[in-house]
Amino acid sequence: MTSVTSDNATDLVKGFQALATDHQLALFYFIYKEMGGSITPAAPGASNVSPAIADGLFNQVKDLSDDEQLQLQRDLIEKKDTELSRQYGGLGDTTKLLFWYLLAQGMDSSDIIPLPSGYELPSAAADLLTQIKTTDFQKQMTFFRDIVAPMGFDATNSFTPETSEQPVKSCS
To answer: 9-158 has which CATH code?
Structure first.
């Protein structure tokens, strides 16, 4: 069981990333349910471009089947190379925050696959949620940005030995 004892944003990120993928997804939703009102103004207001881009990606996800929606969210967390994960990987951090907020809203409206009925966070995730809620707003925003930023697939950060190494030519 992973438990974080500090309210340091870096420690919170490490605690979040130590959770299983589905527990990370559930924690995202619980954060939205408990803190969405205070987080929302910070994310959309930071950029004029973010809402249109986040809405566009959200609408693509909304059109997927429930299983595909869940798999996409898992792919984002696990940094899998898929078309939508690459689109997400190219977004700015503010737009990524807004996208996750839209997913949570979509879960409430049943446009996005919801948590299973009666789902309860495992204790490590519940402990982390408590710590996040008691952290000051600036550290919360740092935490949120730090968890959404590396998600998705960013081809510019990928290293493929087959394509980046040139064959060595003989000097003889």
So the answer is: 1.10.2090.10
